[in-house]
Amino acid sequence: MAEKLQLFTKPDCRFCVAAKETLSRAGLGFGEHDVSASPRTANLSVYLSGVSTVPQAFAGEMHINGSQDLVALNAAGRLVPLVAAATAAIDTDHLSDETIAHGAEDIVLKDYIPESDGTRSDDPEQWAILRFYKDFFGFWPNCFYFQHHWPESYKLFVYAHNVGAIGMGQKILGEPVMMATGFSTSEASGCNYCQVHMTSAAGEKSLGIPKLIEAARQGQAPEGSPIGPFEAALADLAAASTTNTVSDELLARVRANASRKRISHEDVEANITGTAMIASAFGFLNTFNDLTGVDIEAHWARQSEQSAGIEAGRHGVSEARTATNLDHDLPQGGPSVEAMVAKYEAIVGEAGGAEAYARRELGLLPDWMHLWPEHLRARHAVFYVEMMQDRPHSPVPSELKHLMARVSAIARGHDYLAAVEGLLACRAAGSDQRAVERARHCFDAAKSRPEGQALFTEKERAALTVAWLSGQAPITTPRRCIQPAIVHWTPVELIHLFTVCGVAGLVQRFSAIARPKIEAEVRDFLEQHELTADTLALRYPLPEERHGAAT
């Protein structure tokens, strides 16, 4: 590898073409490696980058993740100086084929984490969940066998988020469009598990949803189809929330097609909010399910593959339980769904409302929380706080949780969320200079850069790398990246890490659509400590922008 800039590509890849055109316009020479040419080259791309897609670029040892970042770096005038600052091409000659293949192997974490069966739970507060899913799906989803390891997370996600968010989305959008937006946001994430669920949950009515979306995109929506131009635009909005690419043009397209609604009787702004609610739920589910690699339920997997062409992919299929895990007498006592929702809302009410509660627990009311639908705001506030702040039911420190959310936001280019999570992490750690430096260098630690080493333990760095993996689409867990987390965190603790990443994904997708503004407290924090809100610069700092890491 003689050139300082190396590019991994494959034939017939439009993103690879865009990357090479960008490098050509920038006047940069590069070494090209076709991942289809040999197993070593294919494995090497994953081994070095931690990402399963191409193109992947390296300016010396600095990993540049995909064509979108190459284009953005060039547009910002950062690409040429970044390459110029690279000392030498990355050296891989000493690595054997076996070492590279071993490090690139996609490790499915469900094989490391034992299941926790909640279908016969003795916790009365969980019984309403079993009854809810018996009515909703007919079975207890496989993903819960892992989330159930953190009982408070399991209960809060269902009662304080999913019941309200999915319920609101379905009521506003109608069931077919709720399925369409859930499918589209999951497809953009690469989550086969949730794609299967969205095409199978309503039987024949949902199995045809992917084709109906595509027909509407092409201006060929059949008469009587629930998916027309407006609904296809909402599906595209949900997909764009996954990749943080919601544009003014896309929102204008949604609004321009509002008069062509086929199902919803609500106004266009309500439909946008309903889409944000569905996207937020799948922001959690896609992230958690892909990090665990949970098996897909067999009957839905077969149905979806045969009728919609969606394969299980890296998830695999569970043949053992199929749809029978709730085929027993379910307990009828315990609090109802409504009573559990009221319990969580009362926590916020006793503090004086969502704003007072957030200021007590977080020190500010984040603008994304302020933009959350008012009747669901208290539930969202208690869900976020209970998952992210120090609590007896979680072994992961609050500071590390917020740093993980910051790393995930940086990876996905969420400038606002990276900034606010930096402040929240700093406050959780006591707001001293070391806390500031940890917020400054957490992404460096996630990417194993020298600046991030001294400030974090190996265990913390492993958690931050998990957060970085959670910011990719599709999410995979190559052994070289995930092994430190397996070594340093117990299987149950891994569930806590994955849940934190899911919470970050949930907030990110809502925020991509709702577009919160940076709070004055956060802006002051950044200015006081000379922290940038530019996530492109955080992903790819130039030499003069690097700060020496305090220990």
UniProtKB/TrEMBL annotation:
<dbReference type="Pfam" id="PF00462">
    <property type="entry name" value="Glutaredoxin"/>
</dbReference>
<feature type="domain" description="Glutaredoxin">
    <location>
        <begin position="7"/>
        <end position="64"/>
    </location>
</feature>
<protein>
    <recommendedName>
        <fullName>Glutaredoxin domain-containing protein</fullName>
    </recommendedName>
</protein>
<dbReference type="InterPro" id="IPR029032">
    <property type="entry name" value="AhpD-like"/>
</dbReference>
<dbReference type="InterPro" id="IPR036249">
    <property type="entry name" value="Thioredoxin-like_sf"/>
</dbReference>
<dbReference type="InterPro" id="IPR002109">
    <property type="entry name" value="Glutaredoxin"/>
</dbReference>
<dbReference type="InterPro" id="IPR014025">
    <property type="entry name" value="Glutaredoxin_subgr"/>
</dbReference>
